[in-house]
């Protein structure tokens, strides 16, 4: 296999991991706006271990997963108790915080970053994907996966069924962070150089786009989205210069036309935007009168 | 010395307040976040800076900046909020994040990724008020920021359209049933938020004498921290929190170290989220208890 | 006949919303194995009372006790494993999930739902729960629709599903929020029969309802609320014939 083809497959594989990882959180209906932070945490954790302590990459990856999972659990617990708006705010702030911290931490090279990590192989990447896929298959067939779907569908009904929402959502978030951390570790050892700016809002948006383009309903939809978006810049070379603009606009169009992603069931929506808004707000107004949580 | 630092902090806080108010207006109107607001401020600042470099007076540049801000906010409204289904609350927020990145990328393409300097204003002015001194630029900033904040208060409180905005924020169904043109009010709200952001952008650029295409994220970040501290949707809370953060940042840089500046605010925000998530004056609707 | 135990007790519950007293010093005792109705005109506080009982609203004063245990501070999801289950007036089903999945979710507190549930081979406990779910579908006439999305069901069947899901949690006390709302006459008959059946099996039920007919046919005891206060209470025959109810509803 040519080194070029290998590089492409590695990149695609890492992006698929990112998409699958993000999907775990999205399957509970929770959208994080700073997921690149977990990628950074995994990348730096693994790089420290391989560069400074000569640990083998697979072990470093496991540690990266654990560290990212802990971070995910902490942030998740803080944010998932609150509304979706607060989730967006808190995860965004966290994303910026992590970028800032790494840029100011001399031990990891500050703004210059770390250099010289190697070791990502196709085997490593694709066996990681295989593990995650097995996990997701088992998850979607289990009662835990059913609980995730319930929380996504209707949280109030879920509480009425006895689901402990924060606990479940935080677990999903931590798992999501772990997978993203592993992807970060693999990316670091493939790129051979990492800087804090690699893990900023653009990367966060990319992760979301990989997942959401493919489709929120099935995890393999997210994988498809990642594959398509990874391959696109290769087929359309002119895209490279403009790719942030194109992807940003793609996002905008997607959110209008098919916010649930391309693959999967389409939601029926009736009436124009105002009518929908009135209906929704009518329901919200009624909820507010009847069931404000004290 | 302390007096000067406090004044500088208040000045900074005033600029933060404008952006935070912009965010809060949109939260009130649609229960959504416009993640492109920071970039809106940045583009307006760039426009203002470019005009000033060609020799135009500051007043013209300022008006251009707020006009740009208002216009961009409307564009973002149409692209990210107007036609996005309500069934996916996060979709608008995500879309506006995308728009923000598009704006940044466009500015980088057109103007390059370097910082632009913002020429000074009223350079000759230097007031000595005993406890602190006020330079010409600082005078302009504080006066304009104060005028806009007070103007917003008055507008929301006393005028018909302002009341309509408050009504939509409170109970959109009721207000629609009373005949208020909700969509138009929302449009107005976005325009106002853009105007505030545009002003904030140029004034911040004036304060730091430079503007960078990547300022958008910083502005958004600061505004969000202000909102967490002050309470989602609260105008008063936003102003107070903005001043607190402005003063805190300035004092930290002056008396501790520059690197701690952002960290201290992060820690404060973290504490607030743990202890009193709805902030100082937050509406309850933003905070739900779950187990 | 031995005296019935008090299963659910509401003591001196008060709730204010922005200055308005939705509930003022409400006392209510529900005996085990009985059907207790709560009636009153709109705005009387029935729904708020139900929300307080089920944990969606925290009272400003007062206590809720389940089998002697103070549950006032418990969140709704923690009341479910204790046996307190509710339905919603505007049905809250998991619209995008299938009928079977909805019922399975009702069993959540009785099943293994953590990471261990990922084990691909069903345990005997899980098999039993699944069998139970299938039986519930049969009982509530939902079996032909087991793979349909809940949102696609006609209203009457959605109501059935809501009840089936609630029962899947094996409640000791079932709180029903206007179960007869929007039902046809046939549906109402079926509801009354269903409630009789459930009571016969020993279930304790609290019904918030507008439909006096259903209340009369099903309840052992009725509490009438008006303006957040208890107007009167007693056996339905007595209460519904009395003047208080007429005054409350018609204002004369």
From TrEMBL, chain B:
Family, similarity comment: Belongs to the binding-protein-dependent transport system permease family. LivHM subfamily.
Protein name per UniProt: Amino acid/amide ABC transporter membrane protein 1, HAAT family
One Gene Ontology CC term in the entry: plasma membrane
GO molecular function, one term: transmembrane transporter activity
Upper lineage: Bacteria, Bacillati, Actinomycetota, Actinomycetes, Pseudonocardiales
Transmembrane segments: 6-26, 58-79, 91-111, 131-156, 185-209, 221-246, 253-275
InterPro entries cross-referenced by the UniProt entry: ABC_transp_permease, BCAA_transport_permease
GO BP terms in the entry: amino acid transport
Organism: Pseudonocardia thermophila
Keywords, alphabetical: Amino-acid transport, Cell membrane, Membrane, Transmembrane, Transmembrane helix, Transport
Taxonomy, superkingdom: Bacteria
Subcellular location: Cell membrane
Membrane topology: Multi-pass membrane protein
From TrEMBL, chain C:
Domain of life: Bacteria
Domain ABC transporter: from-to ranges: 8-252
GO CC field: plasma membrane
CDD domains in the record: ABC_Mj1267_LivG_branched
GO function terms (MF aspect): ATP binding; ATP hydrolysis activity
Keywords, comma-separated and alphabetical: ATP-binding, Nucleotide-binding, Transport
Protein's name in the database: Amino acid/amide ABC transporter ATP-binding protein 1, HAAT family
């Amino acid at each position: 296999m040519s080194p070029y083809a290998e590089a492409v497959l590695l990149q695609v594989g890492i992006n698929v991991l990112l998409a699958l990882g993000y999907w775990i959180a999205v399957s509970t209906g929770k959208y994080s706006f700073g997921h690149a932070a977990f990628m950074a945490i995994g990348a730096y954790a693994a790089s420290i271990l391989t560069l400074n302590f000569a640990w083998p990459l697979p072990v470093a990856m496991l540690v990266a997963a654990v560290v990212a999972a802990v971070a995910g659990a902490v942030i998740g617990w803080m944010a998932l108790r609150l509304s979706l708006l607060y989730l967006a705010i808190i995860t965004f702030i966290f994303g910026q915080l992590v970028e800032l911290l790494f840029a100011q931490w001399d031990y990891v090279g500050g703004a210059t970053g770390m250099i010289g990590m190697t070791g990502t192989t196709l085997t490593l990447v694709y066996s990681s994907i295989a593990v995650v896929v097995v996990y997701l298959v088992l998850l979607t067939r289990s009662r835990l996966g059913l609980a995730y779907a319930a929380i996504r569908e209707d949280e109030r009904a879920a509480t009425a069924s006895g689901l402990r929402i924060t606990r479940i959502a935080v677990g999903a978030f931590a798992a999501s962070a772990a997978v993203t951390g592993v992807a970060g570790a693999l990316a670091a050892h493939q790129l051979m150089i990492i800087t804090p700016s690699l893990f900023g809002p653009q990367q966060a948006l990319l992760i979301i786009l990989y997942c959401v383009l493919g489709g929120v309903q099935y995890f393999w939809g997210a994988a498809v989205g990642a594959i398509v978006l990874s391959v696109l810049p290769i087929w359309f070379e002119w895209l490279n210069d403009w790719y942030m603009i194109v992807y940003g606009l793609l996002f905008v169009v997607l959110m209008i036309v098919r916010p649930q992603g391309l693959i999967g069931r389409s939601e029926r929506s009736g009436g124009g935007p105002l009518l929908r808004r009135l209906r929704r707000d009518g329901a919200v107004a009624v909820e507010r009168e009847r069931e404000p949580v004290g | 010395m302390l007096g000067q630092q406090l004044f500088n902090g208040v000045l900074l806080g005033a600029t933060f307040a404008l952006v935070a108010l912009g965010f809060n207006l949109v939260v009130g109107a649609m229960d959504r976040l416009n993640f492109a607001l920071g970039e809106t401020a940045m583009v307006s600042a760039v426009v203002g800076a470019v005009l000033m470099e060609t020799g135009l007076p500051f007043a013209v540049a300022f008006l251009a900046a707020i006009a740009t801000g208002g216009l961009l906010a409307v564009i973002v409204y149409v692209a990210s909020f107007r036609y996005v289904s309500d069934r996916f609350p996060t979709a608008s927020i995500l879309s506006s994040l995308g728009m923000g990145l598009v704006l940044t990328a466009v500015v980088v393409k057109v103007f390059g990724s370097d910082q632009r300097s913002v020429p000074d204003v009223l350079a000759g002015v230097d007031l000595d008020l005993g406890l602190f001194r006020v330079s010409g630029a600082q005078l302009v900033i504080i006066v304009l920021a104060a005028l806009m904040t007070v103007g917003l208060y008055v507008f929301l409180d006393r005028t018909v359209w302002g009341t309509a905005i408050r009504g939509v924020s409170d109970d959109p169904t009721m207000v629609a049933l009373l005949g208020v043109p909700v969509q138009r009010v929302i449009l107005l709200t976005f325009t106002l938020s853009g105007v505030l952001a545009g002003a904030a952008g140029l004034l911040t650029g004036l304060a730091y004498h430079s503007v960078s295409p990547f300022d958008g994220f910083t502005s958004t970040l600061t505004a969000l921290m202000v909102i967490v501290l002050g309470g989602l949707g609260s105008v008063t809370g936003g102003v107070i929190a903005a001043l607190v953060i402005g003063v805190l940042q300035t004092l930290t840089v002056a008396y501790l170290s520059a690197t701690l500046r952002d960290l201290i605010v992060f820690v404060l925000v973290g504490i607030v989220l743990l202890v009193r998530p709805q902030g100082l004056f937050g509406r309850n609707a933003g905070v739900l208890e779950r187990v | 006949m031995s005296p019935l135990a008090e299963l659910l007790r509401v003591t001196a519950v008060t709730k204010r919303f922005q200055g308005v007293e939705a509930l003022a010093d409400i006392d209510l005792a529900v005996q085990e194995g009985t059907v207790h109705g709560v009636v009153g005109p709109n705005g009387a506080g029935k729904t708020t009372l139900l929300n307080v009982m089920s944990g969606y609203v925290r009272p400003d004063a007062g206590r809720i006790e389940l089998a002697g245990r103070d549950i006032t501070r418990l969140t709704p999801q923690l009341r479910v494993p204790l046996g307190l289950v509710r339905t919603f007036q505007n049905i809250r089903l998991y619209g995008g999930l299938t009928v079977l999945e909805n019922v399975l979710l009702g069993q959540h507190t009785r099943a293994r739902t953590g990471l261990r549930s990922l084990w691909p081979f069903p345990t005997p406990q899980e098999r039993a729960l699944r069998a139970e779910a299938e039986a519930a579908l049969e009982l509530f006439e939902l079996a032909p629709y087991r793979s349909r999305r809940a949102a696609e069901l006609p209203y009457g069947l959605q109501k059935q599903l809501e009840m089936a899901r609630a029962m899947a949690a094996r409640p000791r006390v079932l709180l029903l929020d206007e179960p007869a709302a929007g039902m046809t006459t046939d549906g109402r008959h079926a509801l009354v029969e269903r409630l009789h059946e459930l009571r016969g099996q020993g279930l304790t039920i609290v019904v918030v309802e507008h439909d006096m007919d259903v209340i009369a046919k099903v309840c052992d005891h009725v509490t009438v609320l008006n303006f957040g206060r208890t107007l009167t209470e007693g056996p339905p025959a007595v209460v519904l014939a009395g003047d208080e109810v007429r005054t409350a509803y018609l204002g004369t």
